[in-house]
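Posting for a labmate who doesn't have an account.
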Amino acid sequence: MDYLLLILGFVLLISGADGLVKGASRLATNFGIPSLVIGLTVVAFGTSAPELAVSINSALSNKTELAIANVVGSNIFNVLFILGLAAVITPLSISKQLIRQDVPIMVLVTGLVFYMATDGLLSVWDCGILVILLLVYTVFLFVQGRQAEARENDTSADELASITTGRFPTWQNILWLIVGFTFLVLGANLLVESAVNIARQLGASEAVIGLTILAVGTSLPEVVTSIVASVKGQRDIAVGNVVGSNTFNLLAVLGISGLFSGQGLTGDVQLVEQDLPIMLAVAFLCLPLMFTGAVLSRLEGTLFFGLYLLYSAFLIGSVKAASWLDPLLFVAWNVIFPITLAVVVVTLLRDWWDKKHKKANSQIH
């Protein structure tokens, strides 16, 4: 029964997020807010709505480990699984704005949350700081979006905000908001309760369930958006959606759910010593691979995807105390991680060599 409730919770959660984005986007259009701004704020926030609903529900239910684990697991999943799979489908070109601005912001915010949570607690003050940074970030995106909209018509933003095409009655948009919010709340309730029950049955901690089942389930909007964008050739959207959602997850989901709990958010030893460092390492992995050549290649995408499968296997092995866990760790430390490092180094060297030759050729001509 718990598994059926889990699936129903996912369906309600994703449907609610979709309704919320439709209502908010169409209302914004009716009030004359540019499509680029809607794409950067409403749509990005909407894909993080499931994580927000689940984490707030977890915080209010005094299951704060679930709240942190859901965000940590979602951010790891977004980068390694979603970007990896999208890049395997087709190499992802990355815009200068993402390289110079959005990826560094994501890495900095990830580092800040890691620093705040090193003692196993995101205090109310910490969460308040995250919410303030969220407001600053949103205003920054809004101002930047208005300026960009004034300069040119951004087709990527139009694609992202395609759900806003045409005008819809205000009452209909408000109805979408109400229905979407209701579905989100109901879905989050079902999801959290059924996930906790399943965790108890399997002997897994709430943190592990948050890192796996909840993280994957609440990231489904990002999966759909990025994969569809990749298939359609809208590669910048595929990357920007993940990077933007990760930043919103850290600032909005952790910040708001921590304030709702009234006591901040706590994480167990596994989250502090293992999963938060992995989330930080994954964020840093984006820097060299995205900065070089402004393309995430199929090889790099395969690497990302493989690292997520390794991480998932490690979590499952830990829960089951599997006999193959030690050999897996041996292979990871002695084979997979050195290969990852080699790919990063080769990518950096190749990029340096290409730039050197381009500079030499330009001087000749």
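Reply:
Got it, the structure tokens are right above this. Strands lie at 92-93, 121-122, 265-266, 295-296.
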